[in-house]
Write a structure and sequence with these properties.
- There is one protein chain.
- The protein is of the alpha/beta class.
- Helix content is about 45%, strand content about 15%.
- The chain has 14 helices and eleven strands.
- The strands form three sheets. It has a five-stranded parallel sheet with strand order 2-1-3-4-5, with helices on both faces. A three-stranded mixed sheet has the order 6-7-8.
- Strand 3, helix 5 and strand 4 form a beta-alpha-beta unit.
């Protein structure tokens, strides 16, 4: 096997090359870019993103980002477009065509067909004087010096720059739409990310029976309640369900260390005052933050002044919040 020296240096050079290219392209963002964003924002249609080869892969990623941030988008492969997929384009749509050279045969065939539909054409291209650059209504300038590939052939820096411009476009549209974290949660209901944005503490408490004892409960009653509900703790509550304190496994151990005879003790004698609580309407991710901050494994869940449940560290692990 051939040994390649200076692997670390090669990798760093690639990253430096691509980061410098993005910094350079940032200088090309001008009034034309703004006009393109405003056109898409004002449009009643969708964004159709197309390309061929590596540009098609970049196009699919940009479509995914647009859709997830509030801008309806579709992917159309440039080669398939001339074999029927062009029918997905409507007059009110905006088509973004991605190409490094802007002069490939497929692009030269496709551009006049797109223009014939009456929709606006955006060229995302690295050669602004190319066929695509000259025939676009709006131009996203992705000019680069050279690819990170030592042969200056494999699309590397150019695809990175095109991806970054797609991100810039999507985030501009996101901010124009005032797209919030709640909107984001609607489009990302699955997985841990979505759950952080919509899962509330109250959604978790139904997984457990609620362990509670009165302040005058004896120690046997306390142990049975903690053991039976399997949360490692019980809330101590008043007659109307108001919170008085908490008794944990640790409180029981400390009681045994201090007392040889505990037959006369009651819950109020060993409970910890001012336990950590969280409202049932708070997000589950806030419960995770509180547990980590206070180095505890459970929180008492409240509905105003009434104890309604417990949320445990394991609940958050199970849901992928932690």
């Amino acid at each position: 096997m051939k040994v390649v020296k200076n692997i670390v240096k090669i990798a760093r050079n690639v990253l430096i090359n691509e980061s410098r290219a993005i910094a350079t392209v940032a200088e090309f963002v001008d009034d034309g870019f703004q006009a393109c964003v405003e056109e898409i924002y004002a449009s009643k249609g969708r964004v159709v993103v197309t390309g061929i080869g590596k540009s098609a892969i970049v196009a699919q990623k940009i479509v995914a980002t647009l859709n997830s941030t509030g801008t309806p988008a579709l992917f159309m492969h440039a080669a398939d477009a001339i074999h029927g997929d062009l029918g997905m384009i409507q007059a009110e749509d905006t088509v973004i065509c991605i190409s490094k050279s802007g002069n490939t045969p497929e692009i030269k065939v496709l551009v006049p067909l797109i223009k014939r539909t009456g929709c606006k054409l955006v060229g995302l291209v690295s050669h602004v004087d190319s066929y695509l650059g000259q025939h676009s209504d709006y131009l996203l300038n992705g000019t680069i010096g050279e690819e990170a590939c030592p042969n200056n052939l494999a699309p590397t820096t150019s695809t990175t720059v095109h991806l970054a411009l797609g991100d810039a476009l999507a985030i501009c549209l996101l901010q124009l739409r005032q797209f919030s974290s709640k909107d984001f949660a609607r489009f990302h209901p699955g997985g841990a990310l979505g759950k952080q944005l919509y899962l509330k503490v109250g959604d978790l408490i139904e997984q457990h029976q609620l362990p509670t004892v009165s302040e005058n409960a004896n120690i046997k009653e306390v142990i049975i309640e903690i053991s039976g509900k399997r949360l490692g703790a019980t809330a101590v509550v008043g007659e109307k369900g108001g919170l008085l304190g908490i008794i944990t496994d640790g409180d029981l151990r400390r009681m045994l260390e201090k007392n040889d005879d505990f037959s006369g003790l009651r819950a109020k004698d060993i409970m910890s005052l001012e336990p950590k609580t969280i409202d049932k309407e708070d997000f589950a991710v806030e419960a995770a933050h509180q547990m980590q901050k206070n180095n505890i494994t459970q929180l008492i869940v409240m509905d105003d002044t009434i104890v309604v449940g417990f949320v445990h560290f394991h609940d958050l692990l199970k849901e992928g919040i932690i």
